[in-house]
Structures are given as C-alpha cells and as structure tokens.
Predict the 3D structure of the following.
Amino acid sequence: MIDVTADIIIAASPAHIAGVMFDPSRYAEWMQAVTSVEVLDAALAPGARVRHRGSFMGRELTWMTTVETVHFPHVLVLQVTEGPFVGVTRIGIQRSGEGSRVQVQNSGELKGLGFIPDMMVAGPMKTALAADLERLKVLVEG
C-alpha cells in the first residue's frame, strides 16, 4: 500500500486554485507526469471520467480517474483506476492566512509497474507530487 501526501501554501483564493487544479485540460500545465488527457465526461460531477497519458519513472503509462466527490472549490476526490496505480487521490483546498493551503494525498496500490517494490515508488511519487504543487504555485501566482 502506498500513501503519499504533499501540501503547499499558495497566495490565491480556493476558487482560483481549484479553477486550475480541478480542470483536466490544465493537468499537463502543472503535473509533470501528464502528457495528455482525454475527457470522457465533461461535467465536474460524481462519475465523470478522464483518461490520462504520461510517464513516470521512465515508463509510458495510461490511467483513468473517476470523480467520486466534488465540493468546489474545497474538495475533489478521484478514484484512480485502469492503470499501474489504483486507489484514491484526495485534493483539499482551504483558506490559510494570506492564501490557501493545498493538500494532495494519493493512496492505493501498484498494479502495473512490474516487480518494483512499493517502497521504491513511494519516494519518487512524493517527490513528484511536491514538485507538481510547486509548479501549480508558480502557475496560479504568476
């Protein structure tokens, strides 16, 4: 089981941040692993699906997310399916001082990365998640 979390403070309102984070067409702007998305269900509502393409640790990957819960602009919970990592991604955005605290948690299990042990994936996954949030911060604040 893998469970990685990263958070960051961004000098923007939750609505402004969620406008970028919750929009699949913008994922490649701030998520390094994502090279393209195919939005299968356009509404940001429970059951909406997005197919992602990208790479992680040098491997080309495809995976699907399905919206489980959305409370714009504070919460988005996605089920991650049909890929090498299956589980849940939870995004939380809350007001904090002069901006907002953004937290992302990925929890689940590996299904398609061969014989790579979970512990060898969790570290790079956490590093990538933190770097993604830094890119998001620059994008939103810029």
